[in-house]
Amino acid sequence: MKKLNKSILVAFIKPFFYTFFIVIFILLMQFLWKYIDDLIGKGLEPSLIIELLIYASSTLVPTALPLAILLSSIMIIGNLSEKSELTALKASGISFFQIIKPI
What we know:
Helix content is 82%, strand content 0%. It is mainly alpha-helical.
């Protein structure tokens, strides 16, 4: 693996996990607000509600994954542009598609 690809991939991993868990949290809160009237006042145990949220989060992963990839890749490209690394890479003759290939 080229050093450039490895450094871009390593920079991508941390924001990806942050954005993935934030998007899952937002989607779970949306799910919870949608069904809160069905859960409140029924005398359900907290462990049962947590189990319901875990099952709901597993169904929300296909929605959250593309959003997390998009947001974290925008963050990485913006960070490269802010530090003028993207300009240096383009000036050295590397195409933009070659730069974003590891993402």
